[in-house]
Write a structure and sequence with these properties.
Blueprint lengths: L1 H8 L5 H25 L4 H13 L8 H10 L8 H13 L7 H26 L6 H47 L4 H11 L5 H15 L4 H12 L5 H13 L3 H61 L1
Helix pairs in contact: 4-6, 6-7, 7-8, 7-12, 8-9, 9-10, 10-11, 11-12
Protein name: Type II secretion system F family protein
GO cellular component, one term: plasma membrane
Subcellular location: Cell membrane
Length: about 325
């Protein structure tokens, strides 16, 4: 230690340079310590268990267990004690296409990171820009964004995925009608349709592929489609499940059942579009009042008003 001090004393360094060096070394040590706390080292028992698990499930996707352990340690910071709320989030993640077992843990971990980031931004605004106007509003806004941004993004992903799947239902039903009327069985027709729409509607094709796998595994067709409704959140196809279950129970024609449901579904979509079109005039009133009519009155009445005021001023 004395040798190190003697070597350092040989250099002509001022106090400020030495202070910066000490701060740099302390910062590196702190970052290294925090990284060790987050990542940690695995025990031999844990490593052996993971090797056995990978040997038994070689077809599963390999993930970093260190990262999973870190997320699991961060998730309890934001995880709600309310079971109903956690179940709602889990269903939303399922509707958004996240079917992994650790999807809920990853979501709460990302929500914790987002909240910490929002708090850091608020703290930075408070210390770096203390004289900024509306500082309190900016701090509250950054914290709110950090808290609610993951939920907002998740809802947007759910809506986008449901919109994609909903757009492929009509084409899927038409192809099912063609396949069943050409002589294919329902399972074979569903398999063929899932392969055909894989390019145009990949999300719905993936869900139909899951339905086919479940049916081939011995699950009842109605149960497989009810699971499809639970995974996607689309209640529009609940009627199809009921009609197919009823037709299979009484021995009716599946092709005719599909054709009838396809016609009803298209009529329902046309009615929804007509309803949207009927609401457009009402929604256009506010842009007309705020943006268009004032400009029209300025152009139509403005010159006359200017001429009238100039006439009164000259008189």
């Amino acid at each position: 230690m004395e040798y190190l001090f003697s070597q350092v004393s040989t250099y002509d360094l001022d106090e400020q340079t030495m202070l910066l060096g000490i701060i740099l070394i302390a910062t590196v040590l702190i970052v290294f310590t925090i990284s060790l706390l987050f990542i940690g080292s695995k025990s031999p028992v844990r490593t052996k268990l993971e090797q056995m698990k990978n040997a038994n499930s070689a077809n599963k996707l390999k993930k970093s267990r260190k990262f999973d352990h870190t997320l699991e340690s961060l998730a309890p910071m934001m995880q709600s004690s309310n079971t109903k709320e956690s179940e709602t989030i889990r269903h939303k993640l399922m509707h958004a296409g996240y079917h992994d077992a650790n999807a809920l843990t990853v979501f709460y971990a990302l929500k914790s990171i987002s909240l910490v980031s929002g708090l850091c931004v608020a703290a930075g605004l408070y210390f770096l820009f203390p004289d900024m106007p509306m500082l309190n509003f900016a701090m509250i806004t950054s914290t709110s964004i950090g808290l609610f941004a993951p939920n907002i993004l998740l809802n947007q992903q759910v809506g986008a995925r449901q919109k994609k799947i909903r757009g492929g239902i009509a084409d899927t039903l038409d192809l099912l009608v063609v396949c069943t009327e050409s002589g294919l069985g329902f399972n074979a027709a569903l398999r063929r349709v899932a392969d055909e729409i894989n390019i145009s509607h990949p999300d719905f094709a993936d869900e139909l592929d899951t339905v086919c796998v479940k049916i081939n595994a011995g699950v009842e067709m109605s149960d497989a489609f009810e699971d499809l409704i639970d995974r996607t959140g689309l209640v529009e196809i609940a009627g199809l499940v009921t009609m197919l279950a009823h037709a299979s129970r009484i021995g009716g024609s599946l092709s005719q059942t599909l054709r009838d449901y396809t016609e009803d579904y298209r009529d329902k979509r046309n009615q929804e579009l007509e309803e949207v079109a009927a609401k457009i005039p009402t929604k256009m009133i506010f842009p007309l009042l705020i943006f268009i009519w004032p400009c029209f009155f300025i152009v139509a009445i403005g010159p006359a008003m200017l001429q009238f005021t100039s006439t009164l001023g000259s008189g």
